[in-house]
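hey can u check if this looks right to u? its 420 residues, i copy pasted from the old doc so theres a chance i mangled smth
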Amino acid sequence: MKKKSLAALITVSMTAALCTASFAEEAEATIHVLAYGTTANNIQETADIYNGLEERKGTVVVDIGDGSYTSLLPSLASGEGIPDVFEIQSRDVGSFYTTYGTEMFVSLDSILKGEEENFVEGMIKPALAEDGSYYAIPWNSGPCVLYYQPAVLEECGIDVSTLTTWDAYIEAGKTVKEKTGKYFAAFNTNGTGCDEMMMWFNQLAGSYYSEDGSVQLNTPQMHQTLELMKEMYDAGIVCDLPNAWDDRIQAMSSGSIAALPYASWYTATMEESCADQSGQWAVTLLPAFEEEGNVNSILGGGYLMISASCEEQELALDFLRYSMMTAKGNEINLKYGDFPSYMPCYTESYFDEASEYFGGQEVNKFFTEVANGPVTDYGPYFTDIQPHLMEIVGEIVSGADMDETLDAHTEAVNAIIATK
């Protein structure tokens, strides 16, 4: 009886020990990924598939955050409660390196070194820190195109192939506005957005910094960008967006806009928010600032980073590699409108699929042809610069002097930086 009890006790103890070990092993092999918006849905599906792989290195759990980094920034500042993996917007990578120090993040050299040429240059180059290492992996990029409604242009007698410069585009916009009442562009002028400004500034390969590293906003490229925006505004072809994001969606869904220069990632929003306009849209190249000038531009995009406090760095690195550098991972990215930065996947068949929404056009294939826009160095202080860009647009379209406005904002930003 005692022997049986002892044997049973040993069996129970061994089982408990094995269960405890198994539980500990499972707990250790788990990472949390913080994402936001539609990209959270993307990462969730990727995580679900990764978690089902036999060769996976652990379990990935996705948590929902917001694009303003409401929970992330306090965690980074305090060094406590930092997510294992988190998403940041492409324009913020330099600011994160400078503000928090690269020692707060895990080097991604093991998966990125030697792969640089496989990524869109405008995404991989800004991710390189001053110490020569990478601490952020490019995720989605934002090659820009002209979204337009072919039927409206045809009704107005406009051949889209003639819209080769922004001057020609403005003239066409006047015709469309006069004949249909529809707008040919949309941007914000009250200080809540500056996407379009950044798009045109990138098209001109502009820089926000002088050679000595200080912020300099009064540049020829900035003048050209703002002059274009004012010309469009004065021509009456711009739909003003008091709330940059929400009002753009409202204007598109109400049928107020016939053409919109914007980024590839907006396709997902159009398909969801303007579903009843399926088949009414197409994409083409951006006009240039001058005949035969550059027609490529990148707006937005994102990176994933790993916190140095992550206890399962091998799992985190493997998940980043799977998500951003495999055919399946990028198929999911594309499904959610997150155009991949990893160019080897551009030869995959899913890029050749015709889009019903865009009238049978192979839009994703088109995006691959304009994926490499100029490289913009957002640098270490873009979080300080951006609020001023939002203000500048409104001031210039309202008639403020260009040099005085840009000099004043340059001085204001550098004064903020000097206090850090």
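Residues 1-26 have pLDDT under 50 and may be disordered.
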